[in-house]
Amino acid sequence: IYICITMWKTLLGIVIMVSVVSCHSNTAKVTGNVIYVGVSEKADRYLPLSIAVSEIESVKLSLPLPHFWGIVSEVIAWGDNYFLVDKKQSVAFRFTKGGTFLNTIGRRGQGPGEYIEMSSFFVSDSCAYVCDLMSRSIHKYAWDGEYLATIHFPYSIVFDDVIALSDDCFLCHRLADDENGKGLWVMNSEGEIVKRLLEYKQGTPYVYSDWNTLSMGEDGIARIYNPMSGRFYELDADNGSITEALCLRADRNMMDDLISPTGKEIQEGTRECAYSLFAVNGDHYVLSFWSLTPENKVLWSIVRKKDKTVYKGVLPRLDIPGYTRMGRPVSSNIPNALVTLYTDEFTPDMLPNAYKNYVIDEQKAVLSILKLK
Asked: Which H or E run contains 18?
């Protein structure tokens, strides 16, 4: 089964609603590194994000004409740079962390270094990469956008996400279950699979989300998330060791508990299950957004790791001084933080107080980094 989720429309509806302070908590069940969240239990209407968020850092981002913002799906921080991935336009915008525009990276086309579609964008210490699954190619660029080379791989290799490792290899992640397999593996620069790191259960449903399941930090740690099982993994790129850092599970079936290749039970709503479309695994807190089936409901949760307390709410409330609405959440490699973006989807009264007079249009945006405690 393939379950496709239009997550961003749901999220936008959630984050722009007026809210009041209210929160429900309980002590989670823990088995080893597994934490259970009672998604089937009562939850309050609103979840105050101040439970986990300590401060917010915001920066204005302005694109020069003729560029404009489409739909940003990811923000990558590296050195003194922010790379904002616009999946709608298949281009990446590079800024300084102070908000100065530097250049674009990649473009659609048929020429050298051009691609049909930007399936994935990722960076390393000196290069940026665009993966085009349509042509089974990975294009390599300098940070200033100069095209350097193209790496090809066979059509038999398919993945959902990919990032660069330090030895000219790539880490590939596949959640879908088909003849190409599923799991986590290393692919070399010749397009060959050289090592398999994880094998997932065969026959489990597949959840699609624009939220990335792979990220590489400047610390050299690759972080992997499997929304079907709620498991977080970390790969030390230097020594190749992989560990399970945490497992966040619902008090009902997760997707990987449903061994049903046809998916008939799920489609007819005869089975209850839950999956977290995205989750931020911080140093002391885990922030998650859950989807519940067959109720077709959503739930936000915050887990405090120290005492395993779980806070739940149907809607998040950004109760931080100077902020009234949360921007649209996007994937990021920034550790211990939830990253959001305000674009012209948001009216001026929804912006942080410091930017109320900042006229948001197609060229302007505000990036906010919600730092966890």
From this structure: none
Q: What is the spatial distance between Cα 172 and Cα 122, in angstroms, rounded to a whole number?
A: 12
Q: Distance between CA 168 and CA 336 in Å, rounded?
A: 27
Look at residues 185, 150, 180 and name the one whose alpha carbon lies nearest to residue 169: 185
The answer to whether the beta carbons of residues 164 and 123 sit under 8 Å apart is: yes
Burial 127-141, CB ≥16 within 10 A → b, else e: ebbbbbbebbbbbbb
The DSSP result for 83-121, as a single string, is: EEEETTTTEEEEEETTS-EEEEE--BSSSTT-BS---EE
Report whether 87 contacts 358 (CB < 8 A). no
- Residue in the structure block whose two tokens are 């599970």: 249
pLDDT over 60 at 4, yes or no: no
Residue 336 one-letter amino acid:
N
Q: List, in order, residues 6 or more apart from 207 with CB less than 8 Å away.
A: 3, 5, 175, 227, 228, 255, 275, 277
- Interval 353-360 mean pLDDT: 88
> Quick one: pLDDT band at residue 31, thresholds 50, 70, 90?
low
State the Cα–Cα distance between residues 249 and 144, nearest whole angstrom: 42
3-state secondary structure of 75: strand
pTM for this entry: 0.88
